[in-house]
Design goal:
CATH class: Alpha Beta
Number of domains: 1
Number of helices: 22
Helix content: 40-55%
Strand content: 5-15%
CATH architecture: Alpha-Beta Barrel
Order of helices and strands: HEHHHHHHHHHEHHEHHEHHEHEHHEHEHH
Strand order of the largest sheet: 1-2-3-4-5-6-7-8
Number of strands: 8
Structural class: alpha/beta
Amino acid sequence: MSGSNDIRLDRIRLDRRGLILSSLAATACVRDAASANPPPRIVADSHVHLFNASDLPIEGFLKYVVFPGDAASAPDWAAALIDMFAAFYKPQAVTATAENGPSQGLSPERDPQAFGLAAAQFIDQRVEARQALDSGSASLRSSYEALCRALADGTGVPRPAGKAMIAEGSQITAKAFERAAESASSELELPARRARDLGTASAGPCACDTPEPSDHGIDRAVRLIGWGYILTNSRRSHLRRYVDRFASSDRVPRLLACLLIDYDYWLDDHPSAGSSMVDQLATMAIIKKDLSGLADIRMFAGVCPLKLALQTEGSKPRLFDQIKEMHARGEVHGLKLYPPMGFRPLGNSELPDDAFDPRAKGRTTALAQWRATAGNKPLGPALDAALEEIYAFAEHAKAPIVAHAGPGNEAGPGYGQRANPIFWERVVARYRIRLSLGHLVNDTQPFLCAAAAGKPYPACVWSLQGSLRMLDRRPDHAPDVYGDLAYMPELIDDPALAKAFFVTLRKVFSPGDPDLTRVLYGTDWIMLGQERHDTRFLTKIEAGMQAASYTPDQIENILHRNAERFLS
């Protein structure tokens, strides 16, 4: 061959020394670049949710958990928001099976402006339809009017005098929904962060000593509107957003415990068709594979002892059997339990049957479902039998368990107390399971007050003696128990409070565990999406530990090493 582009090997002079020096120089450049820009350190998040509105019994959750009690105890706009979540938000959310389809849930998030306009149009149409079809809809119309009025007041835009709020306030309403969506999907601040203003460790008496203020204002409505906007998006969208935004300058979340929930039987409501627990797990198995470069996801299936007891008693196909099969195939890593729905981790047989009936008007209760299936058999022993089957499987299959162990999100009066860690002491005494207590310290200020004063821990932060005994590593028989720091937004905006919290956390837990090898970092995303500055959580948590003079080992243990052991 010949031509101007031909290379003649006989004209190339090979200089071995030159090649070696060039190679060394190139290697040095790469090494210098790597040292100048070291790879980010890995963070493990032990408490993540990637579900959306279609996966949740969202109407029941709002009715019986977020706004419990009669109408007098709820804000006047609550009925309108509950109706919107059920009839506007939930149908927009892509179901689990749909996300497995050709589009794979990769459609972009709904534009906030389009979302605001759609919300205002929905309100107009919804109220008109209800008024035409049901003469008893006056209360719902009044609730929508209260919501629109509050949103308008929140924008500071004057309302036309003497005009119907819904008819004349559509533009204002649309703008308010648009603003809430923008705040939820960006780093814009929401007007408030949490119902209780926690202050700092030296801010006076313990919060438990004073009544908790109500949170019925527009700030709460805006947070819920924005959270609902987030919940309309796909699971892939949630994962991408989480990984992109829940990083710090030198750390990235990579190992995620993704927790699904199963409590629809307690709330008289269900996920959408196509988003059953099995559907969600199947979709997440595909997402885990498709997006493995983003994160190593460990799926925790929601397990409900009430559902297992009813399906066992009624000789019906049991969801738990399907979960066990999915665990054997590697599609399920662990189990998630949610006691504040109404059951103790063990000891339900000690409760009378009426303890499982919150007596909410118009609600099909756990007890009603049980008696329709089992007659007059007591429910408590059946719940304990179902739970013992779950623990026996977890022990044999070495499947870790995450339990919601804070009193929040109770589905009936006093049900939150059933999540108390003292009941888990009975479980770990009988079964060799790996357990994480979600929300180890669920209320910062009372925790600080009690620790500083040397007083017993108040009920609102649990009697931490149970957690302390289970997380203590000194006894030879210490169980394999951990606790996570999920959903603590009060630490984000208050560096002094964050420092005081981590000083106290070490003081309380280090006597039995000097290196804090049982405390797990967790965000509780997507629930944390209700709060402002949610993207700064990791940065602020690490800054709090550094301000409290944590050792490098203690920080690395909390941010990833402990989770690696728990999830192993």
